[in-house]
Amino acid sequence: MIATEYHPQFFTATILEWKKLLQPDKYKQTIIDSLKFLVNEQRVIVTAFVIMDNHLHIIWQTVNGFTPQQVQHSFLRYTAQQIKFDLQEHDPAFLEEFRVDAADREYQFWERNPLSIDLYSEKVFFQKMDYLHANPVVEGLCQYPEEYKYSSALFYEKEIDLFGFITHWRE
Fold it and tell me: pTM of this prediction?
């Protein structure tokens, strides 16, 4: 049984200076793999998400004693590390765009202080889910939300689960 202590959260993380780091599908897949890991390890329930070229939105809820801060830190650190390894091998020039003068890191991919909002009401929950699913349409990447591959919109529109880790909001 999965125990929940925290409300679902609307989580937004942005790439440093809004650079389009996540434009290659392989980096979107890194995000998918990390979310899948967190769900399989029973750290979170993921209800909705969208991965854009320079940011992402997730509606998730931590479970089994994991705090939102623990999960966020783990998620951001792991994804940054995997992307850094790939850039070191395949695009060191682009990697240099993320070099920072900081005591605790050589490179920074995610903006500090990601947005995390507790979703206390169904009204706000659905507003955030509609907002994140509409992101690709607003950006001109597709005509309908369910046409965008890196989103949970298809799951809600046609009950097609391409990812295997999304939990429907009714569950």
Answer: 0.94
CA angle 58/59/63 to nearest 5° reads 115
For residue 24, give the nearest of 73, 90, 81 by alpha carbon.
90
* The two three-digit tokens of residue 103, written as one number: 């005591």
CA distance 1 to 152: 24
- Cβ atoms 114, 12 nearer than 8 A: yes
Q: What is the per-residue pLDDT for 170? A: 76
Place of tokens 């320079």: 54
End-to-end CA distance of the chain: 13
H-run or E-run covering 107: strand 105-107
pLDDT, tens digit, for every residue of 145-164?
999 999 999 999 999 999 99
